[in-house]
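Notebook entry, structure prediction.
Reason for the run: the old model in the group folder had no record of what sequence produced it. Starting over properly, with the input documented here first.
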Amino acid sequence: MSITQWPQHERPRERLLQQGPAALSDAELLAIFLRTGVPGCSAVQLARDLLVHFGGLPQLLNASMKEFCAYRGLGQAKYVQLQATLELARRNLASEVARSSVLSSPQAVQDYLQIHLQGLEQERFLLLLLDSQHRVIALETLSIGTINAATVYPREVVKTTLAANAAAVILAHNHPSGVAEPSNADRQITGRIQQALALIDVPVLDHLVVGSGQNCSFAERGWL
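New structure, fully documented this time:
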């Protein structure tokens, strides 16, 4: 049965208009994006199958064009639309974060960093550079590692911080395993970076570890 034959209160588009996007599941939101299914499979069922095939929404959103287009019912046009949608989301979050101090909108900062890191197959270490009012100057990638490690040198953090004339920083990296719990190595490198930046009077406001649908904040844990 196609979606147009469903009762109106069960159709994703109608539910979104009546209840808002937050009321919809990942599959229903993805179905609205896909618009149509394939023969014998509605858009919602196709969306569910995609989420299972890729292992979840973050993995689907970060799939390569080759991987994305290889799935039945998808193609370059859908891939381009998806990447454009993701970039709009990144820019909207960047604009929201840049408008005020990161301390006044911590959730926006987490969302901003999460959209850059979630679902990546390799570990990536980012440095969010802030001015004296704790507004964003830039987001820099310091390291791209293997599936389970990234090499970060405190001297590179200091060099990048000085070059941007930053007054404070936030660290962030992802765990490709999907588990956001920080490792001992994560805590050790954070301490080393803190010590290095303390020499130039630049505080580390937070270190965010991004997993699959979950984050861990060092600041919230009281580790900074």
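Summary: The radius of gyration is 20 Å.
The old model has been moved to the deprecated folder.
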